[in-house]
Amino acid sequence: MTPSTLNFQTASAHQVMAAAGKKILRPGGKAATLQLCQWAQFQPEETVLELAASFGYSAIALAQQYGVRVVGVEKNPESVARARVNIQAAGLSDRVEVIEGDIFHLERIPEQFDCVLAEAILTMQSPLGKAKVLQGICDRLKPGGRFLSHELLARASQTEIHQALAAALRVNSTPLSEQEWIELCQTAGFEVVQRQTGAMELLNPTRIIQDEGWVDASQFFWNVLTQPGLRDRLFAIRRVFKQYERELGYLILSAERKSI
């Protein structure tokens, strides 16, 4: 679906932001993802499974920066096709692969990995969905393998926030408290070894510039200013973020699969 055919009022928030030109769609921004990568201590030739790989940007960056081999899983066939074009253009077809698949059926991937990366994935699942995806992640990791997670945090007023986010984002969005995220990981068979929380400033102008860089940020702001439908929807989303800015945040964590 192209920006010109996207219904800005009914589309999910991530589709609307992407249509505006935003590439970094994680609640803690680029800085939080970089912190996760530092914790991971990637070694050349290690294998990484990325969930919801989208257009392949993160997978490409991981292969370029750390020399790892990356398999990305993406449900949307149009995104898979675009990711493959991007991978080929980057000259990384031998190190990066994006396959069409469902995060609820990771058992269909026969390989086990040194690391699994999942950013802004679990927040959008029901309690049972969260548990199922985490179990699938655990099964796809080698014993002692690392799970890197980057999710939305709700410090208080969870029921109210869930309702407000669902209405604004047009997706199920059920962030948990820090302790609830940790307990969820422990139940799935992980030991959380590092974690960090911070403010959720996804649509803060300063954060947009930091995440996207001046050129892409300028294009994003221009698109918002010149497209009324896009602008109205993004402003509505931002109002909800501002309303709950004290309660909403992000959590990143690094966890290890417990030895069997």
From TrEMBL:
Signal sequence interval, chain numbering: none
BP GO terms, sorted: methylation
Domain of life, source organism: Bacteria
InterPro entries assigned to the protein according to its UniProt record, in alphabetical order: Erg6_SMT_methyltransf, Methyltranfer_dom, SAM-dependent_MTases_sf
Protein name in the entry: Class I SAM-dependent methyltransferase
EC numbers, comma separated: 2.1.-.-
Gene Ontology MF terms in the entry: methyltransferase activity
Residue ranges occupied by any Methyltransferase domain in the UniProt entry: 45-161
